Amino acid sequence: MNEIPNEYKILFVDEALDYLSRLEEIFLSLEHQRREDFKESINEAMRLLHTIKGSAGMVGAEHISAFAHKMEDFLISIYEGKLELSSNVIDVVLEAIDKLRNAIDAFSRNEKIELDHSIFNNVAKSNKDAISKILEKYMIDKEKLLSFLGKDHRLFEITVVLDEACNIKKIRAFLILKLLSEVGKVISTSPTDISSLKENFFSILLSSNESINTITAELNKMPDIKSINIEEVKVTLDRSILKTNVGEKVESILENLLQKIESSIDEKKSAHLRSSSSLKYKIEEVKVRVNDLDKLFNLVGELLLLKSRLNRLSRLYDIHELKESISKLGRLVLDISEVVMRMRLIPLEQIFSLLPRMVRDLSKKAGKEVDLIIEGREIRVDRRILEEILDPLIHLVRNAIDHGIEPPKDRIAKGKIPKGTLKVSARKEGNYIVIEVEDDGKGIDPNIIREVAIKKGIISRNIASRLSDREILNLIFTPGFSTKEKVTSISGRGIGMSTVKSKVEELGGSVELWSKVNQGTRITLRLPLQVATLKVMIVRIEDNLFAIPISNVVRVIRVSNNSLIRIKNEILIDVNNKLIPVVSLSGISKVSPYDTIIIVTDSRRSIQVGLSVSSVLDQEDVVVKPLSSLLKGIRWLSGVAILGDGSLCLIVDVDMLIKERVNDVVTKNY
Q: Is 245 a catalytic site residue?
């Protein structure tokens, strides 16, 4: 047999890994869908697997093709209703995806990993375990559970937390059960004997054909309820039990099953037609190797530098033909630069898509329930930023699950719903991207942080007593700091938060922490959108050159020192009947007697500040380079640029400058 060309193997590996990522995304979303809504998603998953199976066979990866075929049969069982979709079934699918991914990765290195097909045979046992847990909690048997499941009825588990001030908890519980019996069938409660209710919370297992919104609306009519949590119970019932208890329905079930199989065949036929129609789009896509993209980016940087040098020469010698040619060259270089920059920008979806699986696995391992919310997937950032921010983001998500969100019982005792919320969001602010990781967990107690810091010798008790709660909380960014007494597989080594801070600051960004006991924690990362090129205004302050991003510049004003207004220790300038504080880079609050003031604004355009400079030199497109270790302590510097004449220019981070140099009182009043 002829050897398969290597380029075909590379194409198979790239395509298969993309398909597996999509498969993982489908099944993570299916866990939260209604049973009747997942048919189209399963159909898409089967198409993806079918493609992987066929492609693997074509490149000689028969073991991968056979495993994909077995997995495809498994999905067909779900699609046809022979196997109900449950958390345990999704566990098996995700495990199979991991095995396929490892096998394909090994194949790319000309290695072979044997794939165990037996994982698909263990589903029945895992489903029985899930049934056992729900039956054990509510102390009922399968026969009783089946007797309550009428046509179109679904199972719901409802947790009700009563107000602590409620003096008639037992009576209120009975009234709630009576109310629920009008919207469905109350199967059982936990505790089973409501008359012995001692806590201010209890759970109900309900069978109903009503929606969650309808049930919630009914419960909201009842007084003395602090919080309500309703979740559909997704368990698989043994088909043999179904036959012995409802034998009279067997014929209708079989008929329904045949209809599902027929519709499945029809949908598979149309699926083949649909998949072939996407061929044109695939041909139009071109993948570029990272090394080639980086080389292209460096060449563009050299072109921009050369353009700046030629601009200076044209002004120096005043040759008309040279100016005209350089002008055309400049436009071409800028067009090329914009294309390359767009190629380097990658949507955050690439790293955000990793979070649902990770959160699911970590929360199950920690025995917690976590609802993940992701916003801002579509925002695009520079490739380097995307690569470097992944590890810090994982640290923050791990900490939120391990340190922040409480176990269900603890949350219920605090009057919260059992499932915690973890929100990862991103938004653009000018030339920066803001990423926030926020949870509604127990928060960080500054008193605990203070004692741990003293115990570990990070600060003395005398210094700790003089620090504010905010300053104390920021001690968690100290290397080696951890409140965990026991190291777990999730966290506790004390390296996470210091790593996050140092990595973000290396990229020219900053980290902020907000936390409140029993309300939650929010960590905000502020990063430049790209570490590539930037259009700036070059200014001189004494003998130093600085670059101010054009996006932050509002206007340039020529003034005399006499036109400045002094109020106490602050210096202000009147701009269109609005007093704006003035600062200088040459001192913390000192304003030098220069005749030029540049009005700059922060990324949100909510605060304006006057920046006094010696002179304004030019506007240029510069290539941003990282700061040296000696300058990283100056927070209002975001990088350094090389100008056309070879001189170095420090780039000002206007947002941090405003934050550090402007007095809070002046900012609020003016």
A: no
For the chain, what are the domain ranges? 6-121, 129-239, 247-282, 290-347, 349-528, 533-669
- Separation between Cα atoms, residue 587 and residue 601, nearest integer Å: 19
Residue 393's closest CA among 478, 496, 309, 267?
Answer: 496
Could you tell me which residue, 396 or 139, shows the higher pLDDT?
396
Among positive and negative, which fits the CA dihedral 171, 175, 181, 187? negative
Catalytic residue among 25, 72, 369, 375: 72
pLDDT tens per residue, range 32-72: 665 556 778 888 888 899 889 888 888 888 999 999 998 98
Nearest-5° angle of CA 302, CA 649, CA 663? 140
Catalytic residue among 88, 127, 311, 399: 399
| Residues in CB range of 571: below 8 A, 6 or more apart | 564, 565, 581, 582, 591
CA-CA distance, 594 to 476, in Å (whole number)? 42
Q: How many Å apart are CA 59 and CA 37, to the nearest integer?
A: 36
Q: Note the pTM of the prediction, 2 decimals.
A: 0.61
Q: Do residues 179 and 137 lie in contact, with contact meaning Cβ atoms separated by under 8 Å?
A: no
Amino acid letter, residue 50? H
Least Cα distance to 625 among 297, 400, 361, 338 occurs for 297
Overall fold of domain 349-528 = Heat Shock Protein 90 (3.30.565)
Residue 14 above 60 pLDDT?
yes
Which residue is listed with tokens 């934050």? Answer: 659
- Architecture per CATH, domain 290-347, reads as Orthogonal Bundle (1.10)
d(CA 32, CA 212): 13
Res 459: pLDDT: 85
Can you name the CATH fold of 533-669? SH3 type barrels. (2.30.30)
CATH of domain 6-121: 1.20.120.160
Q: Decide if 362 contacts 372 (C-beta within 8 A).
A: no
Mean pLDDT over 643-662 rounds to 76
- The answer to whether 230 touches 204, Cβ cutoff 8 Å, is no
Tell me the per-residue pLDDT of 492-508, one tens digit each, with 9 for 90 and over: 444 568 888 888 877 77
Mean pLDDT to the nearest integer, 172-197: 86
pLDDT reported for residue 275: 37
Written out in words, the top-level CATH class of the domain with range 129-239 is alpha beta
How far apart, in whole angstroms, are the C-alpha atoms of residue 420 and residue 435?
20
The full 3-state SS of 589-636, as one line of letters, equals CCCCCCCEEEEEECCCCCCEEEEEECEEEEEEEEEEECCCCCCCCCCC
Catalytic residue flag (residue 153): no
Q: CA–CA separation, 482 vs 455, rounded Å?
A: 11
pLDDT for position 572:
83
CA-closest candidate to residue 401, choices 492, 510, 526: 492
Beta bridge partners of residue 230, listed in sequence order: 158
50 is catalytic: yes
Give the relative orientation of helices 87-108 and 123-138 as an angle to the nearest 10 degrees: 150
Are 61 and 107 a contacting pair, CB within 8 Å? yes
206 pLDDT higher than 80: yes
Binned at pLDDT 50, 70 and 90, residue 342 comes out as confident
Q: In the structure encoding, which two tokens stand for residue 233, read together?
A: 């119970």
572, 582 Cβ separation under 8 angstroms: yes
Nearest residue to 52 (alpha-carbon basis) of 39, 31, 66:
66
Q: Give the β-pairing of 648-652 and 544-549.
A: parallel
